[in-house]
Request: fold
Amino acid sequence: MSSSNDKVSHNVYFDGKVQSLGIETEKGPATVGVMKKGTYVFNTSSLETMVVISGTMRTKLSGGDWLTHKQGDSFEVAANSSFDVMCATDVAYICYYS
Amino acid sequence: MSSSNDKVSHNVYFDGKVQSLGIETEKGPATVGVMKKGTYVFNTSSLETMVVISGTMRTKLSGGDWLTHKQGDSFEVAANSSFDVMCATDVAYICYYS
Reply:
């Protein structure tokens, strides 16, 4: 028997320049995504832990400075906050939701 | 100016149970994807290097035995071949094309 729960969920943001796929992991729900070169503002509803899979991204958390995150780096974003992201190239990431 | 090249490419396989997103990396073109629990057969056209991002997958290359690949593991699949994949849980991966 097949149901829509069998399908991977697919999310599209910023006119398709950022897209992600849902996954259930040992650490809970997460998304794996790709951001094209560009600048974005994201809003969180839960605590997010981001891990860079490919490429380099710069982020600025609310009240913070710009930080650079390379492949393998991880960082947390508080719930109910917004953060700025700059990608000079394509970036792949996995984002865990707590 | 916006063009379709700005969008992340999105690929859907096996009734949506496997989906991937295209990305240009330092190592060349790649896809980041999610496979839902299930058994799949994939065909390659180029040499593929797969890296497991989350979960555990079992694979059987043409003429080989079943192998287990955990988070962080990588393996190669020859061009113009097929390989079997078993996922006991959701699996995220990045696949580099040479």
